[in-house]
């Protein structure tokens, strides 16, 4: 308990959380009802049954199938606002979060006929309110779904153009099923976004189920300056040295890695190798409503399994702040 309060008090930054992945079973069922959405026949009927099913994902795809059904209960701008606001409020109050860079998946909504501006305006309104009332800083990262074709990504970028240009979308990311969809498929999308706004930041999921080349190719071919998950980077010593030299942050998600069976135990996650090679990483929740823990639970789980001493926690927290995409003044406040 004292360890939890110590970890809560650290100025934590979250770089890897999918807003759609913060949809708690309770909100899922209540939005389904409010919006008259019929859930599939095979979908668990109660909160308890659903939570139990969430405890037994066999892999990334098994989880994604549930995640996209969950997305389908979100319709109105208020739905998107409510979702993001409940996440921001929860982590600011319960977890001591200082800064949140949150992903969203517009294609999982536009595919269902929802206008992209409905999604972005709802999320943005929650960001503004969180900054004002909770004192945290926030950024939105638009992700493209890699199981959809490049052309669909380009269309999405075109639909989101005004928000890419005005900076409401602070960065571009890439998520969903990794393995048969290597980063190079989306090089055109990444180049297009950078052309629309040269200031935009770039990241991509890689090295979660894909091998180390998914990490290096994200850097080389998409020009990302961060990689999400990236745990399979340990397969290449050359890559580890590069990540350290170029200060590329990996957004590691410990509880997600266990729930999706990337590793069987938290202590198998290569945090000690990253520390040894001085590869910067942050600790994150990924899809907290699905994986049973928010950011502080992830910090606690790492502490219980690695027993890091104070200097290591200081290093992790400092690397997380330095690797954040906020102004230097905001970093100085957190440091
Ligand atoms: N990996 C890939 N796609 C995702 C994830 C993830 O962890 N969460 C939501 N979409
Ligand atoms: Zn993720």
Automatic annotation (TrEMBL):
<protein>
    <recommendedName>
        <fullName>Adenine deaminase</fullName>
        <ecNumber>3.5.4.2</ecNumber>
    </recommendedName>
</protein>
<dbReference type="GO" id="GO:0006146">
    <property type="term" value="P:adenine catabolic process"/>
</dbReference>
<feature type="binding site">
    <location>
        <position position="18"/>
    </location>
    <ligand>
        <name>Zn(2+)</name>
    </ligand>
</feature>
<dbReference type="GO" id="GO:0005829">
    <property type="term" value="C:cytosol"/>
</dbReference>
<dbReference type="GO" id="GO:0005634">
    <property type="term" value="C:nucleus"/>
</dbReference>
<keyword id="KW-0539">Nucleus</keyword>
<dbReference type="InterPro" id="IPR028892">
    <property type="entry name" value="ADE"/>
</dbReference>
<dbReference type="Pfam" id="PF00962">
    <property type="entry name" value="A_deaminase"/>
</dbReference>
<keyword id="KW-0378">Hydrolase</keyword>
<dbReference type="GO" id="GO:0009117">
    <property type="term" value="P:nucleotide metabolic process"/>
</dbReference>
<dbReference type="GO" id="GO:0043103">
    <property type="term" value="P:hypoxanthine salvage"/>
</dbReference>
<keyword id="KW-0479">Metal-binding</keyword>
<keyword id="KW-0963">Cytoplasm</keyword>
<feature type="binding site">
    <location>
        <position position="286"/>
    </location>
    <ligand>
        <name>Zn(2+)</name>
    </ligand>
</feature>
<dbReference type="GO" id="GO:0008270">
    <property type="term" value="F:zinc ion binding"/>
</dbReference>
<comment type="function">
    <text>Catalyzes the hydrolytic deamination of adenine to hypoxanthine. Plays an important role in the purine salvage pathway and in nitrogen catabolism.</text>
</comment>
<feature type="binding site">
    <location>
        <position position="287"/>
    </location>
    <ligand>
        <name>substrate</name>
    </ligand>
</feature>
<dbReference type="InterPro" id="IPR001365">
    <property type="entry name" value="A_deaminase_dom"/>
</dbReference>
<feature type="binding site">
    <location>
        <position position="16"/>
    </location>
    <ligand>
        <name>Zn(2+)</name>
    </ligand>
</feature>
<dbReference type="GO" id="GO:0000034">
    <property type="term" value="F:adenine deaminase activity"/>
</dbReference>
<dbReference type="InterPro" id="IPR006330">
    <property type="entry name" value="Ado/ade_deaminase"/>
</dbReference>
<feature type="binding site">
    <location>
        <position position="205"/>
    </location>
    <ligand>
        <name>Zn(2+)</name>
    </ligand>
</feature>
<comment type="similarity">
    <text>Belongs to the metallo-dependent hydrolases superfamily. Adenosine and AMP deaminases family. Adenine deaminase type 2 subfamily.</text>
</comment>
<feature type="domain" description="Adenosine deaminase">
    <location>
        <begin position="11"/>
        <end position="335"/>
    </location>
</feature>
<dbReference type="InterPro" id="IPR032466">
    <property type="entry name" value="Metal_Hydrolase"/>
</dbReference>
<dbReference type="InterPro" id="IPR006650">
    <property type="entry name" value="A/AMP_deam_AS"/>
</dbReference>
<keyword id="KW-0862">Zinc</keyword>
<feature type="site" description="Important for catalytic activity">
    <location>
        <position position="229"/>
    </location>
</feature>
<dbReference type="GO" id="GO:0009168">
    <property type="term" value="P:purine ribonucleoside monophosphate biosynthetic process"/>
</dbReference>
<keyword id="KW-0546">Nucleotide metabolism</keyword>
<feature type="active site" description="Proton donor">
    <location>
        <position position="208"/>
    </location>
</feature>
């Amino acid at each position: 308990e004292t360890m939890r309060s110590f970890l809560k008090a650290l100025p934590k930054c979250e770089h890897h959380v999918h807003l759609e992945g913060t949809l708690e079973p309770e909100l899922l069922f209540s939005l389904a009802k409010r919006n008259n959405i019929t859930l599939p026949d095979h979908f668990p009927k109660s909160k308890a049954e659903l939570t139990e099913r969430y405890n037994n994902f066999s892999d990334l795809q098994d989880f994604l199938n549930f995640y996209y059904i969950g997305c389908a209960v979100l319709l109105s701008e208020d739905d998107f606002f409510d979702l993001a606001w409940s996440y921001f409020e929860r982590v600011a109050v319960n977890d001591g979060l200082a800064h949140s860079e949150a992903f969203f998946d517009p294609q999982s909504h536009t595919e269902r006929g929802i206008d992209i501006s409905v999604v972005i305006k709802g999320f943005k309104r929650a960001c503004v309110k969180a900054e004002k009332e909770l004192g945290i800083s926030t950024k939105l990262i638009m992700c493209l779904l890699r199981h959809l074709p490049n052309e669909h990504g380009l269309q999405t970028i075109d639909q989101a153009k005004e928000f890419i240009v005005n900076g409401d979308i602070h960065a571009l990311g890439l998520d969903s099923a990794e393995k048969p969809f290597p980063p190079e498929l989306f090089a055109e999308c990444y180049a297009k976004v950078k052309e629309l706004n040269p200031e935009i930041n770039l990241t991509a999921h890689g090295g979660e189920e894909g091998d180390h080349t998914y990490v290096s190719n994200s850097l080389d071919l998409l020009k990302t300056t961060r990689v999400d998950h990236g745990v399979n980077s340990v397969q290449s010593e050359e890559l580890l040295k590069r990540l350290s030299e170029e200060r590329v942050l990996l957004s590691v998600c410990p509880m997600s890695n266990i729930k999706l069976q990337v590793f069987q135990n938290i202590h198998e996650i290569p945090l000690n190798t990253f520390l040894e090679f001085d590869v910067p990483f942050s600790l994150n929740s990924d899809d907290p409503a699905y994986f049973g823990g928010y950011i502080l639970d992830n910090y606690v789980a790492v502490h219980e399994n690695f027993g890091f001493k104070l200097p290591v926690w200081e290093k992790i927290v400092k690397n997380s702040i330095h690797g954040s995409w906020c102004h230097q003044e905001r970093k100085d406040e957190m440091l």
